[in-house]
Prior knowledge:
Blueprint: E1 9-13, H1 16-19, H2 27-33, H3 49-63, E2 67-71, H4 74-77, H5 86-101, E3 105-111, H6 117-121, H7 130-141, E4 150-155, H8 157-160, H9 163-169, H10 183-203, E5 208-214, E6 217-220, H11 225-241, E7 248-253, E8 256-262, E9 265-269, H12 288-300, E10 305-310, H13 317-336, E11 341-347, E12 365-367, E13 374-376, H14 378-389, E14 395-396, E15 403-404
Parallel strand pairs: 1-2, 1-11, 2-3, 3-4, 4-5, 5-7, 6-8, 7-10, 10-11
Antiparallel strand pairs: 8-9, 12-13, 14-15
Helix pairs in contact: 7-10, 12-13, 13-14
Bound molecules: 5-hydroxymethyl-3,4-dihydroxypiperidine.
Amino acid sequence: MTRFPQGFLWGASTSAHQTEGGNVTSDWWYLEHKPDTFCQEPSGDAVDSYHRWGEDMDLMAEAGLTDYRFSIEWARIEPIEGAFSLAALHHYRRMIEGALRRGLRPMITLHHFSNPLWFSARGSWNAPGAVDRFTRYVRNVLGILHGVGHVCTINEPNMVAAFRAIAERGPEALNDGIPEPDPDCAEALIEAHHQARRILNEACPDLQVGWSVAVQDFQVETDAEQEAAEYVRRRQTVFLEAARGDDWIGVQTYTRARLGAEAGQVVRRSPDASAERTLTGWEYYPAALGGAVRQAASAVGTVPVIVTENGVATGDDTRRIRYTHAALTALLEAMDDGIDVRGYFHWSLLDNYEWGSWEPTFGLVAVDRTTFVRSPKASLAWLGSVARSGRLPQAVDAATGAGEGS
Length: 406
Ligand code: IFM
C-alpha cells in the first residue's frame, strides 16, 4: 500500500490541562504547587488555548489536517461536586462548533489525566462511588456533543492507574516504562469506560466511542515468554481487551520496550548506550508504531484502530519529520498486513506542558510563552501535505526534512 485510504482521519491531538492554562480547580494544579511537588515547573497560563483555540484550529485547517482531538476539562465543567458550569459547557460547545466550521472533525476526549480537585480529595478512582461520579459528569456533557464523530472516554487508562506510583517516585518511575498499574484503579477505570460507552451510545447512536491506551511496542528478548506476556498483560493488554465491543481503539505510541529477565524477573531493558534518546529520555524508535498497532489489534479482535497519539520530543523539527515519516511507513506496512487502521493524530499540535516540565517539545507548532504567538514548524506543513495527498513521500530530504518524490 502506498496510499492511505479515503476518509482516513488526519489530525493532531492536544489536552486541556496541557494547553489551556489556569486550570486552578484541577488536581494537577494542586500537585504542581504543593511544597514537595515532583513537578519541575507549573503549567501556569500554559499556552492560553482556552482563549486562543480559534488560532490553533485555523493553523491545522490551513495546513490541510481534517481532524482535531482535544479534551474537555472535567475540573472546569464540575469545579465543585455536583455543580456544573454552564459557562464551561458553552465554551466547549463553541469549540466544537468552531472546529466543524473550519472543516475539522472533532474527536473529544472526556478525561485526559486531570481530575477535579474534589474528586482526587475523595480518593480519586480508588474511592467507592468514583465510577458514578464520572458517569454523572458524562451525562452532563451529552448536550454539547451533537455533530461530534468520535469520543474518547478516558485517555491512557493504563497510565492513570499507574499515577500513584509516579506521584510517589516522581518522573523517574517512567524511566522503566509504564509502572505497574494499580489493579483496583484499573478495574474502576474499565467499569467507568464501559458505563460511559453505554450512556453515550444510548444518547447519541451515531457517536463512535472508544478509549486510548498507551501502547508500547513490547519486544520480548527472553525465553520467559509466559512471564513476559503477563508483564505486558497487566500494563497494556487488559486495557486493550476492555475495548472489545467499542467502535474503535486508540493507540498511543512513542517508543519500544525491550523485555529481558533478571533473577527470574521480567525487566525492561535500558536502550543500548548508542541508542538516540529524545528529550523525554525515551529511545528514538519510530518503527514502534507498527509493532504497537499489531499488538493492539491482536488484543481487540475486529475493533478498528485509530492512532490517537504518536510523535517525538525534539528541538530539531527535521528529526520530527523523519520520525513521523518512519512511523507512518511502519503504519502502512501494518495496514498492508491487514490491520484495520482508520486514522492518525500527531502528538502534539502545540509545544505544551509535559506534566511537570516545559522542556520536552512535541509540537508541530511552537508557542512563545510570554506573547503566546504561535509559530508553525515545517513539520505542520509536511503532515498537512501528507494528509492532502493521502500519500507518503518516498524519502525525507536530509537537510530540510521535506518530502522527496511521491
Ligand atoms: O503529553 C503526553 C500526553 O498527555 C499523553 N500521552 C503521552 C504524551 C507525551 O508524554
